[in-house]
UniProtKB/TrEMBL annotation:
InterPro entries with a match to the protein in the record: DUF5615 (IPR041049)
Domain of life where this protein originates: Bacteria
Domain DUF5615: 1-101
Protein name: DUF5615 domain-containing protein
Annotated source species: Thioploca ingrica
Amino acid sequence: MKLLFDQNLSPRLPHSLADLYPNSLHVRTINLHDATDTAIWNYAKQNSFILVSKDSDFQQRSLLYGSPPKFIWIRLGNSSVQEIENLLRSYSISIHTFAHNNLESHLILP
């Protein structure tokens, strides 16, 4: 399973979470850090990524268009990189289950 981290999340996350989510990327790595939501959405869709963001716009897009791509919405307020990493680690079973569920297009993490 591959996660694509949006610009509002740390570019360190793909590396620090590689043991659980191998082949994940940050939008900076693929020169999409200043891209529109549509461009990021399309990249995730075309390359089989699950999009991860704190941006509610992607959740609305997910409701409108469904998947692919799937979308994980992180709803933590101001938080450290470590807190985001811990959240994604603690929900790894839910995230992996979500990745294989064909009926759900988005997952909301508190």
